[in-house]
Amino acid sequence: LACSHHHCAFPVNRNELCIWNTATAQPLCLSGHHYSISALSFGSKMNPLLVCSASRERVIVWNLDECTEKVKEGLTPRGIVIGTLLGVVLHVRFSPDDQQVAVCAGNCIYMLSAKNEAILAELHGHLAPVTAAEFCTWEKNMLISVSEDRTFKARKLCLSLPFFFSLKVWDYFTSKLIYQSGVLTAFPLLSLLIDKENKQIITGCAEGQLWIFSLISGHNYRCVAHINLKKEQEKFCNRVWKSGTEIGEGQNTSKICKANKVRPEGSAETSLPILLIEHCDLLIYFRSEENIYSALNTSYLWIGSSTGLLIINLANFELEAFLSYKDYSDLSIRFAGSCALTRKAVNGKVLCLITSMFEDMVALLEVNLAALVRTQQSDFLLCGNENSLSVIASSYFFPFLSNYYFRVIGHKYNYFTIGVKSMVKDQPLVFHNKIRSSGYTAAPRMTMFSPNNNLKKKEVSKWKTSCKCEKKEYPLGSDPPIRYEKEISVTCKPTPICCIQYSGDGEMLACGLADKSILIFNSNLTNTYNVFAGHDGAVNSVGWSHDKKWLVSASEDRTLRVWSVCDNEPALILGKEKFPKTVRFAQFYFIDAFILLCCGAEFHLLSFHLDTTKDDIKRYKQRSACKLVQKFSMASTMEITSLSAVNDFYSYIVLTAGSNRALEIFDLNAGCSTAVIPDAHTRSVHQICQNKGSSFSTQQPEAYNLFMTTAAGDGIKLWDLRTLR
């Protein structure tokens, strides 16, 4: 969407551009795109008034005066194609002189000429799609950009232009990076504004956080303010609510304050994504009313979100007014997917264009700025008056954005079970003549441990035939399972589920909760098999043993416990004295021979012995034992965020991910780290797993542990362990 004085621009039928003149109420339809229009922007000058529209296949600049004349003459208006096949464009912006256009496509910013098809520069450096870019008007050739990688960058554009009389071809265009910020938040940065008066950068994220940075020379882009709009909104509503109760019963308080004062039980708390940041001319209409605004040098901002419009006072960073879409019955849009505002008010009114997040609908609003603020100030409190908002069109102008249908196909998981070898029965003790050497004269063992893989071929074949597997490959041509089969509530009151883990055969599910308990369900979630309680903190991790008889758990209380699935009492407890930091992850390893756990930047390898028998005299003494074998440290990291090791068969490989965004591969047979992958993701990896292969991989080491998958906030990656790519 885009707004400029008396004009509003929005897509129609996905690939057509509609320019709505609010003065004449006449639409102007422009055709030239074959794919959906994804970005729009008006030019900086009024004569001529330019509009840039972008889709994945082309970027077009339209001269509205020429297009209007073409329509009057009965001809089809045409724009100037300035870029082709740049990818998905999220944002476009004209330079102050309307000579260049900054196009944000993917991770790159293309500087295009506004007069012909020419790429003047390509600005690379962001690690995620660029969401907004703005030109600095008082600094020549400076561009500010923000991205989903949660950083902002400042670039100085150095332009070298050869002399051509036709001015159709640019020779070259170079760029230089001036400043790069660190990661500001865990959420993508969506909007950007450059405040010329205060020389500041203002950017907002998807969680309602606002940052203000100084652009004054010598300030080194320092952060001036950080505003939490959700908290400011709550403070504003409480202030209006208290003022309304003091006046008396005859006055009506704002509906938005009533809605925010008490949230209905069971309702979902919505986020406050900052879709738009724009200047607000509020000061012009209150210069004579010193009782309301004593600070004449104060600046104000419009903040457009999915739920409404907010006005922020930059002097004290407080909320001055809030317009909620749902408070107006004439407005059919309750949640906005995008919005645009006119930079300057006309006759005290501002035009706002919004689209619905869930429906094919666009609405043009006319907001009386002075009336909106007066109705929500404590000196007036006429908050029940809805005259501050005039809805020009509450329904869509044209059936744009064709309906998308999501085909939902439910699939049931096909679990398979593997036959278990018959247990060896008790045999009488037999003494043989030959006694095996104790190994005093043998060479020392160089490897830490190794499985018994010296089985004869006949024994291996018998083992394979005894394991009757009913595996069914998931059909690759089918859609992924996206419809849930069943939903249950694990507790009576809302409690976060910190971790879940299926048993190896997929028949049992263990859940670790924040209320310090562990629940075990069967796979179809029909009943609770068992409940374990004993931790003094939230349960961070649960892991099944290979034989499905034991469960290991780690908690925020810095303890580790091993539980018998058939008994509610822990068989093994490792207390706080064993671990200097919280244990984030624990699992059985090497077919239940060891336990692996993460503690800070280290992971520990523990050998253990479990004994659940009780002594009548020393009934409270723990008979199970545990011993530390070795500690392994991950290099250059503060904490291990995820760990993966195979317990279904013998494997020496342990994969770790750290808070420094790196991956490290350990070979426990050699007892050392074998490879490090720095900057595997742009964010810390929160989950890592490796291919478990088959149960007979001990005989075919080249066929297992070839792949691993990592998941972080920027996506999911599949790695080949042979090439580490």
UniProtKB/TrEMBL annotation:
Where does the record place its WD repeats? Answer: 532-565
What species is given as this protein's source?
Answer: Eurystomus gularis
Q: What name appears for this protein in its UniProt entry?
A: WDR27 protein
Which PANTHER family does the entry mention?
WD REPEAT-CONTAINING PROTEIN 27
Asked whether the keyword Transport is assigned, the reply is no
What are the UniProt keywords, alphabetically?
A: Membrane, Transmembrane, Transmembrane helix, WD repeat
- Top-level taxon in the UniProt lineage: Eukaryota
Q: Has UniProt tagged this entry with the keyword DNA-binding?
A: no
Cite the Pfam families for this sequence. Answer: WD40
User: Where do the TM regions start and end?
Assistant: 588-610
